[in-house]
Amino acid sequence: MRFLDTFFDGAVMAKYLPDLLSAIVTTLWLSAIIVVGGLALGLALACLRTLGRWYLTLPIVAFADIGRALPPLVVILIFYFGLPGLGLNLSGPMVLILVLGGVLAAFAEEIFWAGLTAVPKGQWEAGRATGLSFAQTLFEIALPQAIRMGIPPLVNRALAITKMTALGSVIGVKEILAVSSSAQSFSGSATPLTMAALAYLAIFLPVVILSRLLERRYAWAV
Amino acid sequence: MLEINQLQKSFGDTQVLTSIDLSVKPGELVFVIGPSGSGKSTMLRCCNRLEEPTSGSILLDGEHVTACHGAALDRMRLKIGMVFQGFHLYPHKSVLANVMLAQVKALKRSKEEARARAMEMLEHVGLAHKADAMPSELSGGQQQRVAIARALALDPKVMLFDEPTSALDPELVGSVLKVMKQLRDEGMTMVVVSHEMDFAREAADRVVFMDGGVVVEAGTPEEIFGSPKSERLRAFLSRLHPSAS
C-alpha cells in the first residue's frame, strides 16, 4: 500500500495530468524538430565532406569532433546563461533545439560518413562509368547504401538525444521532467515522477519498436 | 573508332604504362593479354577516365576522350560501356532498376522508354525473368550478364571488358562468354582484357600482348598463339599452358 501511495497516488495523478499532458506535447515537438533538423544537418555535412575539399572537410570534422566531445549540458548552460552577455537572448526551447540538434548533427555526420566510406569504390566507378555525375552517383548509389548501413546507430543516437530534452528542465523549458519535478515538490509525492517515467516510455517504446521494423525493412543481403 | 596514342600513366614514381598505341576499328574485338601488373586494366580504365592518363590522348570516333571535363566527360562515358571484374551491380536496386538508372538519369530517357530498353537488354542476356530480383539473389555469372545489359542499355559505341570472368566460378564463365560472343557477332566494338585464351582464339580479331607497360606484340590469334615472335610472349604463353610447350 505504501508503495502504491508513494508512486501511484490517484489524487495527485488526476491533479497534475493536464500539466503533464501539455509537457508531453512540448517534449514531442522539441524532439521532432531536433531529430529532423539534426539528421538533415548531419546528412548535408557528410555529403559536403565527400567533395574532398579541405576548406569544407576541416570545419566539418572540427564541428563533429567538438560536438561529440562536449557534454550537451555544458553547452546548454553556456548558450542560455552566457550568450545574453553578448546581447543574444535565446529562449529555453530555442537553446535546446540548437544545442541538441547540433550534437545530433555531429554524431549523424560521422555515421553517414562512415556509411559512405563503407560503400565499395566499385559502386562509384560503376555509376561514373555509366555517365552519372558525381552528384547523381552520390544520391542514387552511394547515399542510399550509406543510409541503410547507418539506420541502427542513427536510431540509437536519435533516441539518446531526444531523451536529453529532459535537460531543458535546467533552463526552464516546460517539458516532461521539468513539469513533473515541480509537481513533485509541490505535492510532496513521487507520483508525478512516476508519471514522467511512464510518459517517456509511452513516447519512446513505440519508437524503439518502430526502429526494429525499419531495420528489418531496410536490411538486404549483399 | 577508338584510338589510343602514346598513352602514359604513372602512379607516383611508378610508371605503369610507358607508351601505349592502339587503334580499334569499328566492329573489331581486340583481346588484351599479359601478365598481371602489365598495365592491361590501367589502360582500359584510362579509356573512360576512371584513371586519369598522365599523358597521351584517347579518341573515340575522332572526339577527344582525354580532353573533356565535367558534364562533357559524363556524356562521353555514355558512349563507352564498361564491364568490371567485380560486376558492381547496385545492391539496393532491383535488376531492372540497375539497368534503368543511368538511362533515366544520364541519358534522360523516360521511365517507360528506359524500362522497355532494359527489358530488351535483359532478354538479350537471357535474364528477363530476373528483372524483379535483387542482385544478391543472382549467381555471379547472372550478375555479370546484368552488368553487361546495364552497359548495353546506354547504346555505347564501344564496350570495355575488364577481366569479366575472373571472379566467376569456372562453370559460370561460359554463360558470360556466350553473351560476349553474341555481342561480337552483332558487330559491337569491344576491347577485352581477360585470361580466357580459348575465347581469344575463337572470337578475337586481334590479340594484343602487353608486358611492363608497353604493347610487346599484336596480331591475329593465329599469329599470337601460333607463332609468337617475342621471347616474353613465348614465356607468357608457356606459363599458361606448361603441358603444350
Globular, elongated, flat, extended or rod-shaped: what is the shape of chain A?
elongated
Largest sheet of chain B: 6 strands, mixed
Major pleated sheet of chain A: none
- Regions with little confidence, pLDDT below 50 for 5+ residues of chain A: none
- Backbone structural class of chain A: mainly alpha
Rg of chain B over CA atoms, rounded to whole Å, is: 18 Å
What Rg of chain A do the Cα atoms give? 21 Å
Give the class-level CATH name of chain A: Mainly Alpha
The pLDDT mean of chain B sits at 93
Q: What is the rounded distance between the termini of chain B? A: 37 Å
Name the CATH superfamily classification of chain A: MetI-like
Distance from first to last alpha carbon of chain A? 57 Å
Are there runs of chain B of 5+ residues with pLDDT below 50, and where?
A: none
- Counted by DSSP, the helix tally of chain A is 9
Look at the helices and sheets of chain B and give the structural class. Answer: alpha/beta
Largest interface: A-B, 21 and 27 residues
Coiled coil (chain B): 97-124
Protein name (chain B): Amino acid ABC transporter ATP-binding protein
Family (chain B): Belongs to the ABC transporter superfamily.
Pfam family, one (chain B): ABC_tran
